[in-house]
Amino acid sequence: MEELKRLGLVPPEERMKRGPVVVVECPQEIPCDICVKACPVGAITKEKIYSIPRVDFEKCTGCATCVLMCPGLACFVVDLSPKDHALVTVPHEFLPRPSPGSRVILLGRDGRELGEGEVVRVREWNKTLAVTVKVPKELAMEVRAIWVRK
Amino acid sequence: MGRRIWEHPILDFSWRGRKVKFYFEGRVIEAYEGESIGAALYAAGIDVWSWGKKTGRPRGPFCNIGKCSSCFMIVDGRPNVRVCIEPVREGIRVERQRGLPEIPKAWSDEVREEEVFSTDVLVVGGGPAGLSAALEASKHGVEVTLVDEHFRLGGQLKKQTHKFFGSRELFGGLRGFQIAEKLTAELASKENVRIFTRTTAYAIFDTSGPIEVGLANVSEGRLMRVRAKTVIVCTGAQENYLVFPGNDLIGVMGAGGAQTLMNEYGILPGERVLIVGAGNVGLIVGYQLLQAGAKVQAIVEILPRYGGWFVHAAKIRRYGVPIYTRHTVKEALGDERVEAAVIVRVDEKFRPVPGTERVIPCDLLLLAVGLTPDVRLLAQAGCEMRWVSELGGWVPLRTRYLETTVRNIFVAGDCAKIEEATTAMLEGAIAALSAVMRIVGERPELVQRREQLLRKLEEYREAPVLARTREGLKKVLIG
Fold it and tell me: Which residues of A touch B425 (CB under 8 A)?
């Protein structure tokens, strides 16, 4: 997390409170610029194909196109604007597929179970889902995957 | 048909054609058109594919891509058929071999007379480098011949279910198997490309004039001799083995070999898996095993840090798979099939630390410990080779334009150095342009396109994660 912050990949909390915004967990210089081309508002830039992405959090609308398209499944959207919960959008490529209203298990970066959440939105592109779940506010920067019980 | 996967988050298995029946040592096996014999046998629970010639111990599949020779069987009386790259057909008779097989006398009479033909560009291997090479060459008005040992083109792209990195023009965002489908379809529409699948380029005979290459389609008893003005060798790589007690137990498999069964044929290679090696291959295959419904017990990595990319490690960690660094496999346990593995911590000199052993139950132990370039054809042709460990072992010297020390023989992809599919496709196109220029001359538009591709390749390789390859390449560049 500290590393991600240092690299400018985590939006300021004040920005997250105003509405959905991307967190790009891509702290290694790898040769890929899919997110740059994917972003409809040009909020992500890269100097060279392998540079660490630079994100303009003011431009970002939190549309989650990058969540769907990033080959590394490294983009997430966090929204702290709702009053009593946060919304986190994570990529998901497992069966069964969740749908709005599904109760799913919330997972941290290390796979630790962090409780349950309700799915509010599901989008899909080329078999990758972007699943938006309600999570407790304090877990907004912890939940990075979901698991759907069979 | 318990091992066949029917539902998958990424793949659909509608390619499974009509059911066919064939005979395995008298037993009727049901399979689907489009499967390899090996895949159908594994799906039917037949895991013993051969016996060690000295030890007599049973052996299972390892690489599943026609490189490792653990799958030699007798098919319709023909010995040494690699069943992992041989398609199932109605009514064929398959038997395992014990020891060295006899050469059938009747069969040798069946071989038809050698066919001789000429071509401008011969591409050997239809994986990412070869497909890209054939396609690029075909756009410039030359006659192209593409041969591949498998019954389906695409090489190892066919089993890649993750989305590719890179940029959009390099197919970034598409999944590997989708790139294979796209390139194969495009190639099929070209009238100046002849494609021979199930065909091995077994030798290069003469390089003084047109390059004479021997081709054989063993299962059809067909021999050919091509006189090629230029040859582009794109023969790929094979998975490395690792020495430890029990490494010949059934269920000890190449990680890529398991990936072939799982993603190309939709057959679950095992249910509880331990992976050795946390490079990109180990990390990616681990994630894909989870997608297919297997449980990945752990990934062990002997180095202090995993070797693959951060994003691949992060993907699999989110689902609770532990990556044990500074650990290796000490022993595989089991009677005939692997039942568990002993893992052990190592010190800074990679020596096992006594007392740190742990037993991990598993029915599949995957080796993701690197690849070795398949350079046999290049070496046989007399291309000068050099041992460069950063590149995976013996590799051919080559110019910036990918020509070897034998004039008019070019290389591209993993047989030239272990890297990945995006750069293999770029190299394929670069080598193709070099070959085409030998035939039609150095037309400015061709020179310009090749320079563009070279710049793209060099920019891609500037990435710090590719530093090792970059260093290695300095040792093989000539001219």
Answer: none
